[in-house]
Amino acid sequence: MRSIKNEKNLINKLILLRLDLNVPLDQGKISDTTRIDKIIPTLNYLMRQKTKIIILSHIGRPKGKIVNELSLKPIKEDLQKKLNINVKLIEKNIFEIKNKDFFNDFDEQILILENIRFYAEEEKNDLNFANHIASLGDIYVNDAFSCSHREHASIHQISKFLPSYSGLQLDLEVNALNKITSEITKPITCIIGGSKISTKINVIKNLIPRLNNIVIVGGMANNFIEYFGNNIGKSIKENNCKQIVSEIILLSKEKKCNLIYPEDVLVSKNLNGFSQNKKLDQISSDEMILDIGPKTINKVLNIIDKSKTILWNGPAGYFENPNFANGSIKIAKKIIENNKVNKIFSVVGGGDTVSFLNNLNVINDFNFVSTAGGAFLEYLEGKELPGITALN
Asked: Which of 196, 210, 226, 253 has a Cα-to-Cα distance from 24 of 20 to 30 A?
């Protein structure tokens, strides 16, 4: 990929900048600004280069129709405050903008085109639509790693019509994941959670040959607990996964990767209840597993202490209830503790994990935190991402 930071002649250029500003909204208010915060360095860099920036982005899934609740207006207002400049939201129909001269009428250095997914052609990866968007700028920059697994017009086809570059944040994402997948400092440990094994089976299979330890937590750990003959009560699990669990166990043994799953757990009869520590053979049919227990926590912390590289995707428990956040908190604190003395390189990814770390206000205490979900996992799985391929 060509990075925009290596391009010298940017003065007065119109930059079409694809960002992922798909932030959570609660009655028109942004409840988590992480994705906005992460692209501020790219915007500041391009402004220093005396460019005019036209932001392409989306919120939600309007399915090719105008949905007022999914306007980028809250994004515009947040950017204005963070950058302390005027930002202009262009609400005009994109098909009525005939060429890039249209933007000469605005004094603002940053312009935002309204939600790109208001146009059905975007998700159809329509070539003519991509050509039309490209006609509105001089240079295309993709700084939306978390959208780069999508074959959408403003991610994939647009690069056929303009000089195309990666942005600063996308560079950081790819470099961090390359450290995990190809520039490994061992021992390396992957802590992986979430509720579904099937969505992560190929990621796990791809990583196991490179890992020293893989720690299974969260909902997917329940399938392992049940596989070894234990009752998991009302706990969430994915059905028809015995074969998948068996494959992971056999591959771990073959590749000499240490596989860890919970030895004890915290349970309750409902999500809002109090926690009770139990051994795996003590779980009753009316209980659900909601966190890892103290014995398991100590084992995981000991593994982290012996690791040089950590990849963490998925909380250890139902952290929304503080009674079941202890496992995730202890893991986070141990990684941070080792980070501060440069004992490990840490990469964290996935929406739930990022939300949890935001709640603790410790996002900046890790080497790299990825806001990407699907793209993060597909990259680790070894898949080619259309948005990345388009820049090569």
From this structure: 196
Exposure pattern of 10-26 as b/e (b: 16+ CB <10 Å)?
beebbbbbbbbbbbebe
Residue 32 is assigned to a structural domain of this protein = yes
Q: What is the DSSP letter of 114?
A: S
- 339 and 284 co-located in one domain: yes
Return per-residue pLDDT of the chain as tens, 392 residues: 899 999 988 999 999 999 999 998 888 899 888 899 999 999 999 999 999 999 999 999 999 999 999 999 999 999 999 999 999 999 999 999 999 999 999 999 999 999 999 999 999 999 999 999 999 999 999 999 999 999 999 999 999 999 999 999 999 999 988 887 777 788 999 999 887 788 888 888 988 998 999 999 999 999 999 999 999 999 999 899 999 999 999 999 999 999 999 999 999 999 999 999 999 999 999 999 999 999 999 999 999 999 999 999 999 999 999 999 999 999 999 999 999 999 999 999 877 888 899 889 998 899 988 888 788 888 888 889 999 999 98
CATH number of the CATH domain containing 65: 3.40.50.1260
Is 387 among the domain residues?
Answer: no
Q: In sequence order, what are the residues at sequence separation of 6 or more whose Cβ sits closer than 8 angstroms to the Cβ of residue 68?
A: none
Q: Which residues contact 64 (CB under 8 A, 6 or more apart)?
A: 117, 118, 119, 120, 121, 122, 123
Same domain, 222 and 138: no
**Same domain flag for 145 and 233:** no
Give the dihedral sign, CA 169/172/197/314.
negative
Does residue 179 sit within a domain? no
Distance CA 18, CA 141 (A): 6
- Asked if residue 295 is part of any domain, the answer here is yes
H helix or E strand, kind and range, residue 346: strand 345-349
> Do 190 and 298 reside in the same domain of the chain?
yes
Residue 171 DSSP SS3 = helix
Domain residues for 214?
184-381
Main-chain phi, psi angles of 266, to 5 degrees: -105, 130
What is the pTM for the complete model shown? 0.84
Q: Are residues 130 and 261 in the same domain?
A: no
191 and 164 together in one domain = no
